[in-house]
Amino acid sequence: MREKYILSLVQFSHSSKTKNLPIWERGFSRSDEANLLIFNNSYAFILGLIFDHGIKSNIAWTSPHKLKQRLGHLNVKRVADMEINQLTSVIAQKKSLHRFPKNTAKHIIESSRIIRDKFRSKADLIWHENKSIISAKKNFLKLCGIGEKKANLAILLLAREFRVKFDDVHLLDVALDSHVQRVLLRSGYFNTSTKEGTAELNSAFREVHPNFPALLGTPLWYVGRHFCTMTQPKCKTCPVSKWCSKLFQRINET
């Protein structure tokens, strides 16, 4: 059952539904201008990652563009020199760019100082330093407000959307955001709230998709966002429900 469930994810990842998703359905903004900035400015990409906590991803990835409009620039050195209260007031202007403006401002300023001091003010050196995801992940984890999950997400986006070539992309684990974790937990096959469960998940995904196991996070994220929702999940129309053990459990109980 579990193997068939994972294979159904692989099949869904190759379907037209996931291959031809518009950019906002792949986690980015609904604004073309905001996306253009993210794809052409590596520092804006870092800011998008930092904004992406506690708010919807579409809003988070729009925020670097709005921050640039409010500041009049996105200069990493100038942002690094700002005081936290100063940047907090900019973020908190109506309409606030984040529900936690002070924490977000702190993360942005501290990360900007790290980029200035350790990466010569060039954010893309975080991943272009060499072609290893291990090195890139270590660099991402040096930034403030970016943990294991966001580091994995960043590398996945760079490889999948920006076509950055990593020699060891087969080592990248699935980014466990709230949508992905909910789908996995409800499936009944993986409990990613424990280290053992997460290790089991990564091992299983590597067996089925050895070249790029993290790509299986894309269909999981899509299923979580559109079918396996927090309330009133659409099990009957879910593309992977046939092999979902929780669904079988509910059928057997009725």
From TrEMBL:
The record's section on InterPro entries has:
DNA_glycosylase, HhH_base_excis_C
Any one GO molecular function term: lyase activity
Q: Could you state one GO biological process linked to this protein?
A: base-excision repair, AP site formation
The organism is Candidatus Portnoybacteria bacterium CG23_combo_of_CG06-09_8_20_14_all_37_13
Q: What is this protein called?
A: HhH-GPD domain-containing protein
UniProt keyword annotation of DNA damage present = yes
Matching Gene3D superfamilies, A to Z? Answer: Helix-hairpin-Helix base-excision DNA repair enzymes (C-terminal) (1.10.1670.10), Hypothetical protein, domain 2 (1.10.340.30)
Keywords carried by this UniProt record: DNA damage, DNA repair, Glycosidase, Hydrolase, Lyase
Which top-rank group of organisms is this from? Bacteria
Instruction: Give a yes or no for keyword rRNA-binding in this entry.
Output: no
